[in-house]
Amino acid sequence: MAEHMTPDEFRRAGYAVVDWIADYWATLGQRPVASQDSPGAVAAGLPAGPPEHGEPVEAVLADLESLIAPRLTHWQHPGFFGYFPANTSGPSVLGDLVSAGLGVQGMLWATGPACTELETVLLDWLADLLELPKRFHSGSGGGGVIQDSASSATLVATLVALHRAGGGRWREVGVDRRYRAYTSTQGHSSIEKAARIAGLGTDGVRPVEVDPDTLAMSPAALRAAIEADRAAGVVPAIVVATVGTTSTTAIDPLPQIGAICAEYGVFLHVDAAYAGAAAVCPELRFGHAGLEYADSYCFDPHKWLLTGFDCDAFWVADPAELIEALTVLPEYLRNAATESGAVIDYRDWQVPLGRRFRALKLWFVLRWYGVEGLRAHIRSGVALAGRFADRVHADDRFELAAAHPYSLVCFRLRADDETNAELLARVNATGRVHLTHTRVAGRYALRLAVGSPQTTEAHVDEAWQLLASTADALLPR
Ligand SMILES: *Cc1c(COP(=O)(O)O)cnc(C)c1O
Predict the structure, then answer these.
(1) What is the mean pLDDT of residues 275-281?
(2) pLDDT number for residue 477
(3) CB atoms near residue 330 (< 10 Å)
(4) Which residues contact 253 (CB under 8 A, 6 or more apart)?
(5) Ligand 1 binding pocket, CB closer than 6 Å
(6) Are residues 65 and 121 in the same domain?
(7) Is residue 414 part of a domain?
(8) What DSSP designation does 37 have?
(9) Could you tell me if 306 and 414 lie in one domain?
(10) Which of 167, 197, 397, 433 could form an S-S bond across to 79 if both were Cys, CB 3.0 to 4.6 Å?
């Protein structure tokens, strides 16, 4: 066992691992959605150090089954309705397996040409599939890249925005004045994190008020914030608008926000991490109005588009600006292809140097499902969420806490926060479903996000029945 695994040993062990995953998927619905163990349970079951002598893969699989799998939250479970979905799928896993097997480092075009070119083409496919503005297409001067996460996309957008706001001097001198980033009070926490990493600090992010009904960014409040900052000598660098906020899937009004950004020369990044996937369906592209103003845009195929984490699709309208901000070329990476200027070196489009062949899993997914398969998946999530929202609406003990344009429903009992928190705790304790919560205008609300590939009407109905019967117990009629 101490030898390297031979190709034949790999073949045998690999079949066993694939069998294990297939069995896991086939039995998912019978497992409790989330572990009820207390902290330390897994650590206590592990030995103090690695084995002295190598062990067969079967020994690891046995521990996976007995120790690890029972103590997970099962994100692919048909009763998983927490946070946002984090889809995976058979073709995604297989594409990722090929990527792992190839072990290619795609930092430069020259270090694996197909790794770069497949990614460029797939991001163009996706741009067309989502009907993004032409300016993001590589054939029209723009371009796409796969980042590990929407958080990284926001960080990269922030760095490019600072480079632009600093008159192209940011990469030499760093942050030389007071710069500011703007997002709504509902913007994702990664925007603040990006600002900290970029040297703006938390105070460098100005939360912009939202419309109390739609929870979307108020353009008037954005304008007022930008004007006040300019008057105070602060340079507005970037606005991050959101299509589908994390808390409630609110949609910021891009036409007005974009016009303000254009007027003041502020970089506009649009974060559609979860909701962007919906745009594979023509009838769900309403969030795109005004997107032609955006300098950059991203969404996560790893949330609702059947591609396993990590896969964030990020586009910029002006790759030259991005490359200028981030490129560093040490002697040992010099090569003729880079010097020719005819190739893309994606290391200049992201924070790390190294990169894996992530395009493979996306390619496997796009080819397995086809456009119609992707649309069916999204439409199923939207329809199931609508079905659940109808139940909530029809029961006068409950109320919807926000609009549900996609597959997230925010709702609550017409009762105090404590009762709602108790409702969530009791329903989750059944092990049949897993929901999470948020606050809408300060009040506690439950979130039911549909999108796991195995979820059907029966699972959504079961979630509703558990909620309704728990409400009976909490609020005796
Ligand atoms: C989930 C989410 C993010 C963060 O996504 P990662 O890819 O995990 O970084 C950012 N923005 C919004 C709106 C999100 O919903």
Answers:
(1) 98
(2) 63
(3) 7
(4) 216, 217, 219, 290
(5) 84, 149-151, 188, 190, 242, 245-246, 271, 273-274, 300, 312
(6) no
(7) yes
(8) P
(9) no
(10) 433
- Closest ligand 1 atom to Cα of 153: 9
Gap between the Cα atoms of 325 and 319, Å rounded: 10
In the reported structure, the alpha carbon of residue 268 is separated from the centroid of ligand 1 by a whole-number distance in angstroms of 17
Q: Specify the length of the chain in residues.
A: 477
Point out the ligand 1 atom lying closest to the alpha carbon of residue 83. 1
Q: How far is the CA of 151 from the centre of ligand 1 (A)?
A: 6
Q: What is the CATH number of the domain that holds 439?
A: 3.90.1150.10
pLDDT tens sequence across 289-334: 999 999 999 999 999 999 999 999 999 999 999 999 999 988 999 9
Q: Do 290 and 429 sit in the same domain of this protein?
A: no
The Cα 105–Cα 115 span in angstroms is 8
* Residue having the nearest C-alpha atom to atom 12 of ligand 1: 273
Q: Does residue 118 lie in a domain region? A: yes
Atom of ligand 1 at shortest distance to CA of 312?
7
Give residues with Cβ within 8 angstroms of 347, minimum separation 6.
107, 108, 353, 354, 355
Mutate to test the pocket of ligand 1, among 246, 305, 358 (most ligand atoms within 8 A of CB): 246
- CA nearest ligand 1 atom 5, residue: 150
> Do 274 and 244 lie in a common domain?
yes
Which protein residue has the closest C-alpha to ligand 1 atom 8? 149
- Whether residues 110 and 241 fall in one domain: yes
Residue 242 alpha carbon, nearest atom of ligand 1: 13
Residue 2: its pLDDT value, please?
64
Closest CA to 240 of 341, 308, 159, 325: 159
Residue 322 sits in the same domain as residue 405 = no
Tokens 């979307």 locate to 216
User: Which atom number of ligand 1 is nearest to the Cα of residue 274?
Assistant: 15
User: Which of 327, 355, 383 marks a domain boundary?
Assistant: 355
> What mean pLDDT is reported for the chain?
96
Domain boundary, last residue among 22, 56, 72: 72
**What type of residue is 295?**
D
pTM as predicted = 0.97
CA of residue 150 to ligand 1 center, whole Å: 5
Instruction: CATH number of the domain at 23, please.
Output: 1.20.1340.10
- Segment 36-72, tens digit of pLDDT: 888 999 999 999 999 999 999 999 999 999 999 999 9
Q: Are 315 and 142 in contact (CB under 8 A)?
A: yes
CA of 50 relative to ligand 1 center, distance in Å: 35
- The arithmetic mean of pLDDT across residues 131-157, rounded, is 97
